[in-house]
Design goal:
The protein is α/β, with parallel strands linked by helices. It is 19% helix and 33% strand. The protein has one domain (5-156): Purple Acid Phosphatase, chain A, domain 2. The longest helix is centred in the N-terminal third of the chain and has 17 residues, at 54-70. This is Ligase-associated DNA damage response endonuclease PdeM. InterPro entries: Metallo-depent_PP-like, PdeM-like, Pesterase_MJ0037-like.
């Protein structure tokens, strides 16, 4: 598994961005990700669209690698851990959870996290309805500017559009950072990219399979 990372400092805290679509908060030993959308591929298959089960396998394999690589003690999911209803992909997640029994999982619920409480309890997931405050950060699902606070969120699946010679274009996922917020890329690779969020004063930490690029 090819791996690249980039360290940034926000409000005195060291954060490690990686090209596997998550970040690691060193002080808290916390792996932070957003928009895993577990169950999305099975949801499409259920409705007659042939999406490979390998999509879910690959996402969970990357997550396992990151937990092991950083020796993470907790996983903070900034919304949309799950995609829709309980389906066959949940069996894969159940197996994955059993492989990481000591990992604390905290979910700030997103717009897709609509499962019954008993499902989250069965996976030993601690749920926050709207936000999680761990100073100096506030974790929320949908990006918003909060006075005097730094928010970490997801939801929009940020990306950058790069125009090259010959009218060629390429889209890359990115971490979008401003003075008051950080927006995570979607962890699942089975998602689109929003490339029109050109908020002023943003820095875009885009990445490929081998490297980071700053815009």
């Amino acid at each position: 598994m090819i791996y690249a990372e980039k360290q940034i400092t926000i409000r005195g805290e060291h954060l490690i961005l990686n090209n596997l679509r998550a970040l690691f908060w060193q002080c808290e030993r916390a792996l932070i990700a957003s928009d895993l959308h577990v169950g999305k591929s099975a949801h499409f298959r259920k409705h007659g669209i042939p999406i490979s089960v390998n999509v879910q396998h690959n996402d969970l394999d990357r997550l396992s690698f990151l937990v092991s690589h950083y020796q993470a003690k907790k996983l903070i999911v900034v919304g949309d851990l799950f995609h829709a209803e309980v389906n066959t992909d949940m069996n894969l997640f159940k197996t994955w959870r059993a492989e990481h029994p000591d990992l604390e999982i905290i979910l700030i619920k997103g717009n897709h996290d609509r499962l019954k409480h008993v499902v989250y309890d069965s996976f030993d997931i601690n749920c926050c309805q709207q936000e999680l405050n761990l100073q100096p950060f506030k974790f929320i699902h949908e990006p918003e500017l909060v006075d005097n606070e730094f928010t970490i969120s997801g939801h929009i699946h940020p990306g950058v559009l790069i125009k090259t010679k010959g009218k060629q274009r390429i889209k890359l996922p990115c971490f979008q950072v401003s003075d008051s917020n950080l927006i995570l890329p979607a962890f699942s690779e089975f998602t689109g990219l929003a490339t029109s969020n050109n908020q002023k004063f943003n820095t875009y930490h885009a990445f490929t399979e081998t490297a980071f690029f700053e815009f």
